[in-house]
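Extended Data, panel c. Modelled sequence:
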Amino acid sequence: MRALIREKYRPYHDREILQAEAEIASGILETIDARGPLSSLEFEDRQRVGADHSWYGQTRVKRIMRSLWASGLLVTHHRKNGRHYYERPERVIPAQHYQGTPLLDVEEYLRWIISRRQQAMGLLPRSAEAAIWCSCGTGAENKVALSQLMEAGVLTLLRVGEKAVPYYILTSTLDLLDAPLPAPRMLFLGPLDSMLWDRKTLRYIFDFDYVWEVYKPENLRRWGYYVLPVFYGDRFVARVDSRLEKGIWTIARWWWEPDVTPNAGMLDAVRDAAERFMRYLHAVGVAVGEGVDQAVLQAILEVAAL
């Protein structure tokens, strides 16, 4: 499937980036050939070419490496602290796959990527936001792919809620609808978690509105720079604004949803979630702002004291 994606996007990268920077691109490949997996930090060229928050970063080398990746000339060998380390594909991909015949069947690709998108979201509405259908073909093409997946029994159409809104679900997961709910636990969801992809679904099923405000000017933010939704049991119960600063998990604000009154079980879940999150962050301590709810503050400080 990557072969088809390369065929689709490589002309742009060849035309706009790799041909214009052919000498640097060749040098990057030669260096990786000689030294093995490298990130953009291992190259001395630090010239900045991109705008803030561009998809490829702000340096020329990083932009070229991303284009080499999109064109199939490099693959991600591993990541460290979110940074990609690139290697030649033939030294990463098993030979039986790397040397296999590229699959360029467009219809099969569309069925595959829509199935993967469906797997990520659980419930996928036909009316989902446009970004969710990115790389899934035109509206007419993904409509055909959805029909084919339905006919093959891969997808099932459900009607959800009082308005009977149509959603697709993987047929293999239908039994989850009748499964008992697991014991409730609290989760801090990242802004790009697939559960948050479709805002209309969040509002319709959970009565929860969420916008990632990291790209908004500060004076236009309602909540904060990097606010995480807090999920507990079967609903969203809070939002937390925090960041990691020099190894310290710094919590600036915590907002309970208007109709939530935290009980002892929920506060125990706060402690458990905070402990897991600190391990995930490799935080060595925690700092809690004065505006944080006192019960939450106490629960988190108890974790920090362990």
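Strands lie at 75-80, 83-87, 123-125, 155-160, 165-170, 186-188, 227-232, 235-245, 248-256, 285-288. This feature is highlighted in the accompanying rendering.
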